[in-house]
Structures are given as structure tokens and as C-alpha cells.
Amino acid sequence: ERPPRRSGDDQRPPRRFDDERPPRRFEDRPPRRFDDERPPRRSGDDQRPPRRFGDERPPRRFEDRPPRRFDDERPPRRSGDDQRPPRRFEDRPPRRFDDERPPRRSGDDQRPPRRFEDRPARAPRPERDERAPQREAAHTPGSAPQAESSGLVRLSKRMSELGLCSRREADEWIPRGWVLVDGEPVTELGSRVRPDAEIEILPAARSEQGERVTVLLHKPVGYVSGQAEDGYEPAAALFTAENQWEEDPTRKHFAAWQHKGLAPAGRLDIDSTGLLVLTQDGRVARHLIGEDSTVEKEYLVRVVWNAPQGPVEHDISKVFPEDLLEMLRHGLSLDGEALKPAKVSWQNEEQLRFVLREGKKRQIRRMCEQVGLAVVGLKRIRMGSVVLGDLPVGKWRFLGRFEKF
Fold it and tell me: Which of 25-34, 136-145, 194-203, 326-335 has the lowest mean pLDDT?
């Protein structure tokens, strides 16, 4: 009584979507019934056999489908006839891309294409020094720039400036309550004080500071002053019980804890030898290599002069021009910065004696290159009033209690 859905017999013409049947909308459909008036789709009653995909009905194949038509019998999907009302969502007219609206990038006369070179020039960005100080403006009320403007300085920095200790030592002592400011203990790291505040160190800090060691090492060639690099060992690796000088006048003994925090105070190139200071005491390091340090460092430098007529290896002092020697004393610059005056004289015919109050990287070698000298040997023999003396190469000793740089 009810033919199968989508049957293609002659009694039922194909469903059409033209003007003979208005569009069926969801709200116009009657409610679906699931009671006895309409059996379920897959009911097994006698009047309608179950839908089978076997021999009674061959499977529907793609090639058996009738060709889809796009002619006048089936109008286009978006036809705008009067009998079919427009879709609710599309109340506006359909968007068109024909000649009524030119393409966005059309090349007609009404709108020329926008090219990169037609864009207006961007205003030049201000130079760095013309910009507003954004970083300072972003600081909170307790930040460093505002504190400095109010005259306060960091406590650890002030202690270092006064020569009480290094900043690292100050950061160790402050949380322990070993630092008093105007008679009151300060235990918070990063605290700031007035430059004229009275700072006092408790005896416990002095006692610990007194236990910190300073070592004098005769560095051999082939060791680097600081951290290991390019496969070369640091000079601190020589600080062992076996390498302590037997004639150490301090009579102190090596202990493993003395390695902690031991750092070089000043550099010696890998190709140089002589006195190298290793210390746990920040005051010693600041005194020797701080920005305001005036401690003298003395070197013996063996050279070869690359004269216009050829290299001179012997009796150089007799033929080396005096004006070039004067340039070594003052008048040279490194990295665009003028060097401090130096004491330079002949120690013997092939060896110069340098006394410097600064220590730039490879300074002596670079100074000599500027006047035609090639360094073939460099040895540091003194730092301040502490001399290398008879300390053998590769050996070390403690700095004596009464020795001062």
C-alpha cells in the first residue's frame, strides 16, 4: 500500500523542487507518529515486507542513479521566484561577485591597486635617548631607581665600598644577623641604607672572615687563571696538599674546605707564568682588581724586535728607538681607551720590566705589538708589596698574617 521510499516507477514521478510545489519547511511538517497508525520503518508485517538488499531488490549503485539535472526542469538552488519565500537568515539579497561589484583588487580606473610603495611613509621612530624612560616608570615604589634617587644604597654595596667585606660575604652575613645598621640588626637581603649610616660587623663575622685563606701560587705555562677552557686546567687545580711549598713560612696546613669560594684575584694568560693570587676573601680581591685599585703589578717581559731590516733577538736595548719606549710608558690606547701611565725600562738587553696599575686582557702583549715588539716570555714577579720570591713553579704557599698587598 505504501511504495518503498525513493522508488523510481512510472506511477510516481520524480520529486521536483520547482514552482508546482512550494518549499517544505521544518515547521510545516506534521509531527512524526510512532503509534499504531504508522508502523515503524522496519516493521515486519505482511503488507510491507522488510527492506532487503538481496536478490528481491538489487543494490543501488552509483552508476544507476539518474543524471543530475541543472536545466530548466530544475531551477538553481538559489532561485528567487515569488512562490518560494526567501530564507529567513538570508533576508539580505544574495551576495554577488559580478559586474555590479568589482573585485577587491580590480585594476579598473575607479580603484587602482594598492601597492607597497604607495603607502604613506611611517613616521620615523625616535632615537633611544629620546624615548621615555619606560623601565624606570615601571618600577614599584621600593625599586632601585627610586631608592637611589632618594639617596639610599644597597647595604651589601655600601659594605663593599667601605672595605668591610665583599658583596658576597655581606649577603651571607646579613641573613645571619651579623650586620648592625645604626645599632639595629638587619636581616633582610636587599635592604637599603643611608650613605652616612653607621654599619657594624659582629665578632662572629670577623672570626669567619679571619679563617678565609689567600694563596700565592707560582702558575706554570699551560694553566688558565679562571675556569677550565679549551681543555686546559684551571690554576686552582694545583691547590693541593702535595703542591704546598715545604718552606711555607706560615706553617699552616692544607684543608679541603679551603677550596670553597677560592677565586683568582687578577689574571695571567695561559702562556704566562709567575705570581697568581687565589683568595676566599672578598676584601683582598677588591683591593687587587677593583675598579679603583691602584696596586702595582710588576712583570719581566722577554721580547724580540721586528725591526725594518729584520728581527732582532739579541742586544735589543742597544738598538730599540727611545721614542718607541716612551710610547710604551704613556701614549697608547687599547679598545679605544687610553691606558694609564706605565713604568717601562730595560731589565737587561732582551728583557723589559713593566709596572702597571691596571690589568686589561693581554695588555702587555698588545702594547708591545703596537711598537713592533713580540713577546716570547712573560712572568709576574710582584703584586703590591708581595713578591714571588723563591716560590718554585707549580708550588703555592699561604699569605702570611702580616703580609699586605
Answer: 136-145
Give the three cell numbers for residue 41: 520503518
**Element housing 261 (H / E):** none
Gap between the Cα atoms of 302 and 377, Å rounded: 5
CA distance 317 to 349: 5
Within 10 A of 143 (CB to CB), how many other CB atoms are there?
A: 12
Ordered DSSP codes for 291-336 = TT----EEEEEEEEEEETTEEE-SSHHHHS-HHHHHHHHSS-EETT
Which CATH number does the domain 297-383 belong to among 3.20.20.70, 3.30.2350.10, 3.40.50.300, 3.30.830.10? 3.30.2350.10
Residue 269 annotated in active site? yes
- Map out the domains of the chain as residue ranges: 152-210, 213-290+390-398, 297-383
For 207-230, what is the HEC assignment?
HHHHHCCEEEEEECCCCECCCCEC
Among the listed residues 64, 98, 108, 269, the single catalytic one is 269
Query: What is the CATH class of 152-210?
Result: alpha beta
Fold of 213-290+390-398: Alpha-Beta Plaits (3.30.70)
Measured CA to CA in angstroms, residue 249 lies from 33, 244, 281, 400, 403 at distances of 113, 11, 20, 7, 11
Average pLDDT over all residues of the chain: 77
CB contact set of 327 (below 8 Å; sequence gap of 6+): 370, 371
Q: What is the pTM of this model?
A: 0.54
322-329 and 363-370 helices, crossing angle to 10°: 150
Supply the pLDDT for residue 283.
85
Q: Please count the other Cβ atoms lying within 10 Å of the Cβ belonging to residue 328.
A: 21
Please tell me what DSSP assigns to residue 4: P
